[in-house]
Design a protein that fits this description.
The protein is an all-beta fold. The chain has no helices and 18 strands. The strands form 2 sheets. Strands 2, 4, 5, 6, 7, 9, 14, 15, 16 and 18 form a 10-stranded mixed sheet that branches. Strands 1-13-12-11-10-17-8-3 form an 8-stranded mixed sheet, with no helix packed on it. Strand 12 and strand 13 form a beta hairpin.
Length: 291
């Protein structure tokens, strides 16, 4: 989840691109995983439906925690990530809640911000990673200045290959001050902080924070396509890269979910930012192309 300057980002055009569009209403209510459609018959290979009692932590067989504050995230973010149920747990209604809270971070050092915000960031590193497939989550994002929810992926070789050479695919990023817009981005060598980015908005000024929406990428060799509520809105491909840029999306990536606060791109929260703020995740599902 690298910092991104939207004005300076390289917008995808070409690669037989998906037509830009404005999304439909919120995605349907949660139901059993459907049989995926074209371009191939997809099969479900990994999922978390977040079923269980309230306050239970996410499945330890699937998720691990990132903890702590900057400078390890690299974006001058304000939050301090914890593994406490008050920051990350099931809500008892089939959702995972990642909750940003305004509270003193005791006995911790914060390089940026007032050290008064906690939140959560979880990942499947060491538990699950995959190259290629359909990666999808149904999420209700929060709104408010300085909030930065995300569903994304990092190259699983990150212990040996430093970012951005390991690759980053941002399935969904949103700014709480622009809750009607979703961004999809890839980061790699030669397109680092700015990334290669595409985005779309809901029609008639509607907000993604008003309900659940489905965020997805279809990742195939040499190509990544982004979807909002089942409709494509942008495509990136290896053939589009410029001299000095390298395609690094040919090896397994693991999944991440987080709710950041503050930082270079979203800017700081202010008195109008609601705390606590929750990012609710209905499900995360991964499909492989059928045979």
């Amino acid at each position: 989840m690298a910092a991104l300057s939207t004005a300076a980002a390289v917008l995808i055009a070409g690669c037989s691109p998906a037509r830009q569009h404005t999304a439909d209403d919120a995605a349907p209510r949660k139901r059993a995983a459907p049989a995926p459609t074209t371009p191939a018959a997809w099969r479900l290979i990994w999922a978390d439906e977040f079923r269980g009692p309230a306050h239970r932590r996410p499945d330890r067989a699937k998720w691990v925690y990132d903890r702590g504050g900057e400078p390890q995230w690299g974006n001058h973010e304000w939050q301090y990530y914890t593994d406490r149920p008050r920051n990350v747990s099931l809500d008892g209604h089939g959702h995972l809640a990642l909750t940003a809270r305004h509270e003193k971070v005791r006995s911790k050092a914060c390089r940026f911000g007032p050290c008064t915000i906690t939140s959560a960031r979880i990942k499947t590193k060491g538990k699950f990673a995959r190259a290629y497939g359909r990666f999808e989550a149904r999420i209700k994002i929060p709104r408010g200045k300085g909030l930065w929810p995300a569903f994304w992926m990092l190259g699983a070789n990150s212990d040996k290959v430093k970012w951005p050479a390991n690759g980053e695919i941002d399935v969904m990023e949103a700014l709480g001050r622009q809750p009607g817009m979703v961004h999809g981005t890839i980061h790699g060598p030669g397109y680092v902080a700015q990334g290669i980015e595409t985005h779309t908005t809901l029609p008639r000024g509607r907000s993604l924070s008003d309900g659940f929406h489905t965020y997805r990428v279809d990742w195939l060799p040499g190509k990544v396509t982004w979807y909002l509520d089942g409709k494509p809105y942008g495509t990136a491909c290896s053939a589009q890269l410029k001299p000095g840029q390298k395609w690094v999306f040919d090896h397994p990536h693991y999944l991440l979910l987080n709710l950041a606060v503050g930082g270079d791109w979203p800017g700081p929260p202010d008195a109008s930012t609601p705390f606590p703020s929750r990012m609710l995740v209905d499900y995360v599902r991964v499909y492989a192309p059928g045979h």
